[in-house]
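Moderator note: this is an archived Q&A kept for reference. The question asked for a predicted structure of one protein chain; the sequence and the answer are reproduced below.
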Amino acid sequence: MTINDVSLTHHDGAEAAGLLEELCDTYAYAYGVGPGEQKTAAFRHRAEKQFGRPGFALVAARDGGRLVGFVFGYTLPAGDTHWWGGVQPEPSAEFLRETGARTWVLSEIEVRQAWQGKRVGRALHDAALGARDEERATLATGPDAAAQPVYESWGWRRVGRIPGDEGDYYSAYDLFVLELPVSR
């Protein structure tokens, strides 16, 4: 198993909806949980809400037809967005300004455990962000997520922390930003 064995394909929201079962299966194997467990069910619910959002895009990684990883996200709408709500330290008004074409949310990046550490995640990241026209990208992670050093090594910078909503997996999330375009 090497990155050379992987093919990447781009999909819109309608195509992503048709891949939902594969996405859930891959998500479960990325975390080592069962496909029917609560964490996977929460992912399914999040994903279904995002397929129709403006600017939605998915990049899938396959090895011999099997989905081994994916990344997807959407563009933040113009005006006041929930995304930046309560971020501390509070950034400038200019930083918070959304135009509907300024910021792309990298919502999910998942790789099956057997493929982790083989540069599949980085290839997905670069393929997704390399296709974006927005000025910047953002993502949220749990405060102590093991992925934070990886994101920082890819050029992301932490801009603050927001409180989680009721029912969220974490009580707070760290927000990161990456200026676009990314260099490949």
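Archived answer notes: The chain has one domain: 3-179.
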